[in-house]
Amino acid sequence: MQVEGKTAIITGGGTGVGRATAIALAKLGCSVLVNYSRSRDEAEQTAAEVEALGVRAIAHQADVANAEACQAMADAALAAFGRIDVLVNSAGTTKFIPHPDFDRVGDEEWDRILGVNLKGPFYCARAVRESMLAAGGGAIVNISSVAGVGGVGSSIPYCASKAALNNLTVTLARALAPTIRVNAVAPGFITGRWLEQGLGLAYPLVKKSMESRVPLKKVCEPEDVATAALAFITGSDLITGQVLVIDGGMLIPPA
Length: 255
Fold this sequence. Notes:
Elements: E1 7-11, H1 16-27, E2 31-36, H2 40-52, E3 57-61, H3 67-81, E4 86-89, H4 107-134, E5 138-143, H5 147-150, H6 156-176, E6 180-187, H7 193-199, H8 203-213, H9 222-234, E7 243-246
Parallel strand pairs: 1-2, 1-4, 2-3, 4-5, 5-6, 6-7
Helix pairs in contact: 1-2, 1-9, 3-4, 4-6
């Protein structure tokens, strides 16, 4: 897909992977709705950076776990830009709970994590469907995780949500074909605020340990994930229903 002159919605677009993807799309001439839930300042800053690249941008608050909020966000994008061509479901949440600690995993954790990580991408895809069809087609990229492939991650609900998101990617690709393509990127360890906040003082040690363990001896930067997302958006129009793991070789079994 040629994205110059087109429009994207990036959920969780104020920080991390979402921000990096918004900037990357803007550099190619794509206008962007930068979604946020709580990170208003960061989203507005990202929108300003997008506009500085010569395209239009708005920051829009919406909890993607709420179907009505997702529809209102799509309506806002359509009102502002007149079309929707790209959706990147980058918003995500988790709670850091050791996997054996079953007693700390309650309904609140399950409901919130599944609401944002699984229901959110479905609600957003449904909200943009008609606009993408009217525009003649579109591309959706879900930001998943190796947690959904290897069962390793911040908590059991998080791993389950990302595994379900990988499955949702395939089923949406089937349901939305042939006009809308749907793919997913599944990163490993990503540098940035999310893991810094979740791991606290342990973050530098965990990062260093991960870098020493993976075959390529480095972990993901947000820009690495954005590059993979752009490959799905701007690359071959025959690619759909795929989950691309980018983890430095983290999931390769040891010899």
